[in-house]
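Priority: medium. Attachment 1 of 2:
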């Protein structure tokens, strides 16, 4: 584990941040990064033919036990896919919004905080 990662959180703290993130997603105040540095996100979305609605559904299913950015996607898909997600929660004068920086297949080991 990278010594720069901060894992000093309670379950309740993660649940509060996640609730804010999911509010933004539910209210369409989010984007998934798809620029040239985030090709993995685009490839993942295209490979699994994930509509905007399905992307939102997946992001809404994340819970505190998934902390360290991953979740299992098993609704209606034959392949079990472990997804790596990373968020940037932005608080501006116009309100909170979320940038989903990473949204792709997990490509490295994850040490979950609450499992």
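Attachment 2 of 2:
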């Amino acid at each position: 584990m990278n010594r720069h990662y901060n894992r000093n959180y309670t379950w309740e703290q993660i649940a509060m941040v996640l609730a804010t993130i999911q509010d933004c997603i539910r209210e369409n105040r989010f984007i998934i990064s798809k620029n040239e540095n985030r090709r993995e996100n685009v490839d993942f979305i295209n490979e699994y033919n994930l509509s905007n609605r399905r992307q939102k559904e997946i992001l809404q299913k994340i819970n505190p036990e998934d902390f360290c950015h991953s979740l299992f996607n098993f609704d209606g898909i034959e392949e079990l896919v472990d997804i790596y997600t990373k968020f940037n929660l932005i608080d501006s004068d116009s309100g909170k919004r979320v940038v989903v920086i990473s949204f792709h297949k997990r490509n490295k080991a994850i040490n979950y905080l609450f499992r």
